[in-house]
Amino acid sequence: TTRMTPVILVLFLLSMTPIFSVSLTKFLIHGDIMPSLMRNADPCTARGCKWRKKGRYVYVPFTIASDFIFQQMLLFTSFHRSTCIRFVWRRKQVDYLHFFSGTGCWSYIGRQGKQQKISLQKNGCVYTSTVQHEVLHALGFHHEQVRSDRDSYVKIHFGNIRPGLESNFRKVQTNNLGTPYDFNSVMQYPNYAFSKNGLPTITARCNPNLPLGCAKQISRNDIARVNRLYKCSK
Ligand SMILES: [Zn+2]
């Protein structure tokens, strides 16, 4: 049995020290995604890692470690308002999310089966955008800058990426659900993510100075993707 080793988070990327990133990121795939032997990317949504739908709603059972107060998890309401995802307290459901305060903010992609952890480090991850980001991973979504069509929208500056961390920028054959590349997605990494030299690793093709990774909350496209992937009806 492997002891899962935790990770980084989008928010920390901006202030990460080299020591911190080196010791943690070598265990990571795509920065804050927990590697899994079973599945590792959002093409899994075509193979059964979606959460199950019952009637109109997709119920995602969850538990919360005592690290958090429930109020903090009311951040879920953004999904309840705009999608057919319903986070429900776990009773006897086999598959569920367990939120706890680990090292950094990280999540698996898609439903893994049984207890599935999401780490939200207490001092650093409990922000609307970060919780939504990690929850979107668990719902089956990948980072914006690894989308299959990303090369038309962003330029990845591989020469500026810290050696060994290039895999965070590897393209994934994502299902983009007919939604456009979205610079304002909560799944978009910042310009300087994993930079080794203070120069940008990601820039928008239409405007190299466009600040990326600034989303304060889930975007309209992020919402549209959830609704399309899970076939939510209004
Ligand atoms: Zn992420």
TrEMBL record:
Cofactor note as given: Binds 1 zinc ion per subunit.
Binding site for Zn(2+): 133, 137, 143
Domain of life (superkingdom): Eukaryota
Gene Ontology biological-process annotations: proteolysis
A GO term, aspect molecular function: metalloendopeptidase activity
Keyword terms, alphabetized: Hydrolase, Membrane, Metal-binding, Metalloprotease, Protease, Transmembrane, Transmembrane helix, Zinc
Regions crossing the membrane: 6-29
Enzyme class: hydrolase
Pfam family, one: Astacin
Active site: 134
Cofactor: Zn(2+)
The protein's name in its UniProt record: Metalloendopeptidase
Species this chain originates from: Anabas testudineus
Taxonomic classification: Eukaryota, Metazoa, Chordata, Craniata, Vertebrata
